[in-house]
Amino acid sequence: MTIMTPEDARQKSNEALTNAAKHICTLKCGMYPMAVEKFPYPQVCTLEVKPWQCWIAYCQRDQHPLSEDE
Fold first, then answer.
1. Burial of 25 (0-12, 13-18, 19+ CB in 10 A)
2. For a tag site, which of 17, 36, 53, 69 has the least CB within 10 Å?
3. CA 16, 14, 50, 69 torsion: positive or negative?
4. Are 56 and 21 in contact, with CB atoms under 8 Å apart?
């Protein structure tokens, strides 16, 4: 049995988050979370920012209160 270091665990977690964000992006037809969830991207949005990168920021947010219609 191999013991995972904290750095290895963090890398695996980041890889999992990236894969999940790409999957969400695909399910949402490549739309940015600002279009789907009205979530503003917390950084400067340029043409180089890919939608899945915005979904990572969306998934990493500290708190996302539910709207009344959810």
1. buried
2. 69
3. positive
4. yes
Residue with tokens 């400067």: 44
The one-letter code for the residue type at 43 is Q
Distances (CA, A) of 34 to 2, 11, 12, 61: 41, 27, 27, 13
Q: What is the pLDDT of residues 2-59, one digit of tens each?
A: 788 989 888 888 898 888 888 888 888 878 777 777 777 777 767 787 888 888 888 8
Listed in sequence order, the residues at least 6 apart from 24 whose beta carbon sits closer than 8 Å to its beta carbon are 52, 55, 59
Nearest CA-CA partner of 40 in 26, 24, 54: 54
